[in-house]
């Protein structure tokens, strides 16, 4: 899905700001800022603990110039949205982290205002990605249960726009551009007609919906070097251009050879983090300044990459990574497909993961939608080098194969140019996992020295080495990325004895893990869990959230941050 754009033929108007807000759709007695998570804003718990639907309302002026196709475009609404204009439903969307657009052309009159209501439903059930369950408490109120660690923030999380585009318009473009300087493109337009394409910086043009343009001696997009080019697409009618769209792309190749992950033919070693869109008060809302701060800290610490754990991040993140040469493992919101995992890897199995009352064919259908939509959104981004189709699903159950095989195939069909993977949980080791052979890269989350062998780093190292050997023996010479390893750490807590939760132990833990990675040629990346402390669902295992950050939630460095900086900035890659 293309992002809205302001240009010669298109207009857009952000609808950020204060909306009227209601819990019942009748009494609008509060206001709520957009974009924003609703949960940490109000001083009372009524909104925070509300399980169900809430309502945003405002009048939107449609400018006189909006005479083309007028739409409302949402970056993300978590988790379900029903959109109404002047009382008529114009669209609904399931899934909290991907964009959608509602056409409102026939319901609005340019030069007048209209009433927009967005009904947001924060409930997760087993057909959702991520899945969850709403239960009724003894007092009759509802509780949301879910199997992932991070807090279930909800709201209109990203900027929404009022958009005007020409009736004949560019619907989509797919670009594949490798080191050879050839830009293969395929344009989809709303109705047939003449198409002109130009690689602006390369000064080469062509015509037709599909073709290839060659740029002489292209400046490659590479890690740390976000060289971007612009493909200008013009829909032509006689002498006039009726629509145009500019899509940025980069010339680069990604491939796997043995255990190497090659970017532009060179082995790449991932350093960085699994992250979260998570901030005090903002919750999961996107904010440019907060994001920029995170990116600056990534740069400071020597991270060359990140994983969008555990859902697709705002498009602003992806643009930034494209521009700055930050390598991205792009993940769907499929987290928590695992009944044995509750709040990190603590917890015990309550029921079988795959089955009619649990993760089922409806979950799979929606999971497939998220794969399609994620790839549709990010397919032209040079920063994205690998699709992660799930985080820590249960893959010990033989039924996991029937669930994942079609999804892996779908991801490959949607994008034959990038490798695919899924992130493996510690409770599904090499001898129990039923799906790893379906993927190109082994991504594993391991907590030796924390959830197992806690405090005993010599033993942790032995167990970790044994497990890595096990993966290689069973699945052959494939790349392994350690997508999570970490230890909860209270900033400011120290000990001479490497006691758990201290900054000293976090550093010792990282040292021990790093030693194991450095001995194993197949390990081609390390993403520490997590970049920063983050809010989690309530539970005895978490004291005001997950504390595995290299930075605190307000982005102050722990000792671990300096350790990683030293390690990563001295690495050759
Ligand atoms: C892993 C999950 C991650 C958790 C982490 C933890 O992938 O979401 O936050 O454990 O427990 O299992 O810290």
TrEMBL record:
EC class (word): hydrolase
Residue ranges annotated for the Glycoside hydrolase family 2 immunoglobulin-like beta-sandwich domain, each copy included: 196-252
Keywords recorded for this protein, A-Z: Glycosidase, Hydrolase
Residue ranges annotated for the Glycosyl hydrolases family 2 sugar binding domain, each copy included: 42-166
Any GO BP: carbohydrate metabolic process
EC number: 3.2.1.31
PANTHER family in alphabetical order: BETA-GLUCURONIDASE
Protein family per UniProt: Belongs to the glycosyl hydrolase 2 family.
Identification of the protein by name: Beta-glucuronidase
Species, as recorded: Corynebacterium pyruviciproducens ATCC BAA-1742
Organismal lineage: Bacteria, Bacillati, Actinomycetota, Actinomycetes, Mycobacteriales
């Amino acid at each position: 899905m293309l992002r809205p754009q302001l240009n010669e033929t298109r207009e857009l108007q952000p609808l950020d700001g204060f909306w009227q807000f209601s819990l019942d759709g009748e009494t609008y007695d509060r206001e709520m800022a957009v974009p924003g998570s609703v949960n940490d804003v109000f001083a009372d718990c009524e909104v925070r603990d509300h399980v169900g639907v809430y309502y945003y309302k405002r009048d939107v002026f449609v400018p006189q110039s909006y005479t083309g196709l007028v739409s409302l475009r949402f970056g993300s609404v978590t988790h379900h949205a029903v959109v109404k204009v002047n009382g008529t439903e114009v669209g609904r969307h399931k899934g909290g982290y991907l964009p959608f657009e509602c056409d409102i052309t026939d319901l609005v009159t340019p030069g007048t205002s209209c009433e927009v209501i967005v009904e947001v439903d924060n409930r997760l059930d087993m057909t959702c990605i991520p899945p969850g369950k709403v239960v009724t408490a003894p007092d009759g109120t509802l509780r949301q249960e879910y199997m992932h660690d991070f807090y279930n923030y909800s709201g209109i999380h990203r900027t929404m726009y009022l958009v005007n585009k020409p009736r004949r318009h560019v619907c989509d473009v797919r670009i594949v551009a490798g080191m050879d300087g050839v830009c293969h493109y395929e344009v989809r337009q709303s109705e047939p007609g003449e198409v002109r394409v130009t690689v602006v910086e390369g000064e080469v043009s062509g015509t037709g919906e599909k073709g290839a343009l060659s740029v002489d001696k292209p400046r490659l997009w590479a890690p740390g070097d976000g060289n971007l080019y612009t493909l200008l697409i013009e829909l032509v009618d006689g002498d006039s251009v009726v629509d145009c769209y500019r899509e940025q792309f980069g010339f680069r190749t990604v491939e796997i050879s043995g255990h190497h992950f090659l970017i532009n033919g060179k082995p790449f070693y991932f350093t960085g983090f699994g992250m979260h869109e998570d901030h005090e008060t903002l919750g999961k809302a996107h904010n440019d300044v907060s994001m920029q701060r995170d990116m600056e800290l990534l740069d400071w610490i020597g991270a060359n990459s990140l994983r969008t754990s555990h859902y697709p991040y705002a498009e602003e993140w992806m643009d930034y990574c494209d521009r700055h040469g930050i390598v991205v493992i792009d993940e769907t919101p499929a987290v928590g497909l695992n009944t044995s995992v509750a709040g990190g890897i603590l917890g015990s199995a309550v029921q079988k993961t795959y089955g009619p009352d649990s993760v089922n064919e409806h979950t799979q259908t929606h999971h497939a939608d998220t794969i399609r939509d994620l790839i549709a959104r990010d397919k032209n981004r040079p920063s994205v080098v690998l699709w992660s189709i799930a985080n820590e699903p249960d893959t010990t159950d033989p039924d996991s194969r029937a669930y994942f095989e079609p999804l892996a195939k779908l991801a490959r069909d949607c994008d034959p140019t990038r490798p695919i993977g899924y992130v493996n949980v510690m409770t599904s080791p090499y001898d129990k996992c039923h799906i790893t052979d379906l993927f190109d890269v082994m991504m594993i989350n391991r907590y030796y020295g924390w959830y197992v062998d806690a405090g005993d780093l010599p033993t942790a190292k032995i167990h970790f080495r044994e497990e890595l050997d096990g993966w290689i023996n069973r699945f052959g010479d494939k790349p392994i990325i350690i997508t999570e390893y970490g230890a909860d750490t209270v900033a400011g807590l120290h000990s001479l004895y490497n006691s758990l939760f201290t900054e000293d132990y976090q550093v010792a833990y990282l040292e021990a893990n790093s030693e194991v990675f450095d001995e194993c040629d197949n390990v081609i990346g390390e993403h520490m869990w997590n970049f920063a402390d983050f809010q989690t669902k309530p539970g005895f295992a978490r004291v005001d959230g997950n504390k595995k950050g290299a930075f605190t939630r307000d982005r102050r460095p722990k000792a671990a941050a300096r350790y990683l900086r030293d390690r990563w900035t001295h690495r050759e890659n």
